[in-house]
Amino acid sequence: MRILILGGDGYLGWPTAMYFSKRGHTVAVVDNFTRRMMHLERGTDSLTPIQSLQSRVEAWHNVAGCNIEMFIGDIKDWYFISHLIRDFQPDTIVHYGEIPSAPYSMIDVHHAVQVHENNVNGTLNVLWAMHEFAPDAHLVKLGTMGEYGTPNVDIPEGYFTIEYKGRTDTLPFPKQPGSFYHLTKVHDSNNIMFACKVWGLRATDLNQGVVYGIETDESNLDDRLLTRFDYDESFGTALNRFCVQAVAGIPLTLFGRGQQTRGYLNIRDTLQCIELSALNPPTPGKMRVFNQWVERFSVMDLAKHVKKAAREAGIDVTIAHYRNPRVEAEEHYYNPDHTGLFDLGLKPHYLSDSLVESVIRRVVQYRDRIMEDSIVPRIYWERGGTDDYVEIVEVEDGA
Length: 399
Hints:
Layout: E1 2-6, H1 13-22, E2 26-31, H2 34-42, H3 53-64, E3 69-72, H4 78-88, E4 92-95, H5 102-105, H6 109-133, E5 138-142, E6 159-164, E7 167-172, H7 180-199, E8 202-208, E9 210-212, H8 238-248, E10 252-255, E11 261-266, H9 267-279, E12 287-292, E13 295-298, H10 299-312, E14 319-322, H11 340-344, H12 351-365, E15 392-395
Helix pairs in contact: 4-6, 6-7, 8-10, 8-12, 10-12
């Protein structure tokens, strides 16, 4: 299979490229290094020292004997992406090429517009290029469970059947995104669905939960192949932040009471999900939706997992409750369906089996790279922008 990976220098893009390359597929990656540039802008960096894309591709060839083709360019550039898709003729396009940060999109109007232009316009270019030059290709697009929000009903996989005034139809489930970033994913889903309907394209929209972990079978071959590990306020997930705070001796930053609940999955399971989607494409004209997550945790659950894992590594951890910088329901119902990928054969990994060995150990390994000033979130939704005043509401016993 010919696989084109957009955002191939990223946290998920690079491991995905190695994963498919190792399995004999022809793989090409595309990136314009926006993520690296945003870290420079924010004064932050990956905890893991990541090599340049060129060095990674060379190291992968030396270590695994596999080739990955590399293209440097911006998918917002119609000439670049249309000619690339025309010339490469992918069977599958794996689309990670978007700015993936709710806090970053909420800093100010300029960042909100940047995220919209990058994500929505880039995806529109990809759809038009598929329509004109690769109409039989399958788009595997990374969405987010954050599109749905936290409704007080069960969440289906994309669509639900509704009866209204005596008539019945199957429609997209209503979206309640929680940031300008999540809104871009909703716009993407609508655009992809429309393109499939009018042009007969085929697409899989993966509404992914929060991904954790650094290690894959491929990256473990050589530390030059490591993917990034973000823990800062703009790009770090709560779990990554907690692990770094635990090792650095900083109280874990729970927002409010910490009852916000989301779906989570290991990075190895993301790779499985992408592969299962690519090997089992939908019929032309269909945008299929999978809710891509394995386990469901509240933020407090995560903090307790990290506290337990840290204790096993000989580290004492304190939990602190901070004034929530986000506008969100802190206690809510959350029960999304997620059967589609399991039906295709997903074999899940679980947080309790991997947190100490594959995450905490790596954080300890690179503890000298921790930038403590970048950990505590200061980007507030209700005012916009950043706030140097960070209020700790309560600190729990570290025992």
